[in-house]
Amino acid sequence: MQAAPDENSFVVDLMTTLRGERFRLRGWYHFLRRSWEMSWNTANANPTLKRSWARISIFIVVITVIIAGISFFFEGPGIAFRLLPGFLFCIAWQQSDLFWHLGLNRQAQTGKLLPVVGLATTLTGLRGVAASFLLGRLVGSVSTSSEFALFVFLAGITTDMLDGPMARRTQTQTKLGQIGDGEADFCLHLAITLILIQNGTLSLWLGLVMLLRFLVPLVAALGSYFLLARPVRFGSTTWGKFAGMAQTLYFFVLLAPRQIGTIIQFAYFPLLLATLTLLVVAPLVQIVENVRAARV
Hints:
Blueprint: H1 7-20, H2 25-45, H3 47-75, H4 77-100, H5 119-139, H6 146-169, H7 175-198, H8 204-226, H9 238-255, H10 258-264, H11 268-295
C-alpha cells in the first residue's frame, strides 16, 4: 500500500495557488480538479481502502432505502417523495465527502494510512444518515413532531457515544474520523435546532446562538485555509465537549414528551444558562488553540 503525500502540505499548496489566482472561477476549477485527482490517486493506490469505502457506501445506501421505505409506508408517498430529494442529496454529499478525504484516514498516533475505514467512522456515518433524514424533511417542508425528532436525535447521540470509544479501543483514531464527527454533529444539531424553531419550541435568537457554536470555528477554519493558506487543528476541546453535553441535555428537555417535560421542567433555566455560557466560551477556546498551533 502506497503512502499518499502529506495532506497538510498539499492543502497549503492548493490554497496558495487559489489565492494566487485571486479566487477567480478558473482558480476554483483548478482547486476542485486537483483535489479530486488527489482523491482518485489515493484510492487507486490503496485498493483495499477504496473497497472499504465502497462497502460502507453500499451499507449506507441500504440503510437509506430502508428509511425511505418506512417513510413511504407509514407517512404515505406524498411525504416520502417530498423529503426524498434533500435526503438523497445529503447522503450523496456525505459519501462523496468521505471519498474526497480518504487520504486523511491516517492513524493519529503514527500518521500511517489505514487500509480500511474503521467501524468508528461507519458509526459516524450512521449519525450523518439520521441528520440527512431530518434535513431532507426540512428541505421538503415536511413537519416533524418533537417526539419523532427526539427518537432520531437519540439514535444519533447513541452513535456519538459509541464512535469515540470504538476508535480508541481499535486504535483507529484518524483525522478523517474527526472531520466526519464534526460534520455529523453540526448537521444533526442544525436539523434539531431548525425543527425546534419550526415547531415554536425554540426562539429564533437562541437557535442562532446555538448554531454559532459550529459556525464560528467553521468560519475561522475557512479563513485560515483560504485567506492565510494554513492548516487548522481538528478535534474537540474540553470546553467544546462540555458545550455539546449541555446543548444535548437542553435539547432533551425541549423535545421531551409532555408527561416527562413537566417533571424535568425545573432543569430548563439552569441548562439554558449553562448552555449559553458554554456556547460562547467553547468556540473562542477552539479559535485560540488554532491560533497558537499556527504560530508553532
